[in-house]
Amino acid sequence: MGEEGKQMPYKTILLSPWLDVRMTNPEVEEKEKVDPVLLKEALIVAGKKYAGEDGMDNYLVNPILGPIDKLKNITIYTGTYDMLNPDVHEFMKRTKEAGINIDLREKEKAIHIWMTHIENKKVYAARETFEDIVELLQEKG
Question: Under CATH, domain 12-18+25-138 is a member of which superfamily?
């Protein structure tokens, strides 16, 4: 059961997740140089709008700050050319220290949400990744 006593999903699959809308990780600026999709300044504006009254430090806005003790059956897909990738690694450090196993599937030189480009055969093995996601969804609990 989750924080409010609600049933947790059996499986969670995160595709290029935005785990920290504050965009304060210093590695983000290096990734911005190779990320053709996202812009840090635009994400900061969007993050502030998204946070609204909850504020930028609320874990409901920034999952990287949230409780992790009930997390299970999570798979994260991230690309090394995705500006959001450094926060995935920070999250992974935190879960590893807590003894929580997260299935990280990182694609070298893949951009933000590369797996949605399944019709473009030149995009980072998008079709293979998409098929991998479908397979994960079909697994029984």
Answer: Alpha/Beta hydrolase fold, catalytic domain (3.40.50.1820)
30 backbone dihedrals φ, ψ, rounded to 5°? -65, -40
pLDDT of residue 3 exceeding 70 = no
pLDDT bracket for residue 122 (50, 70, 90): low
Residues 6+ apart with CB under 8 A from 128: none
Q: State whether residue 103 is helix, strand or coil.
A: strand
pLDDT at 5: 67
Q: Are strands 103-107 and 74-79 parallel, antiparallel or unpaired?
A: parallel
pTM value is: 0.88
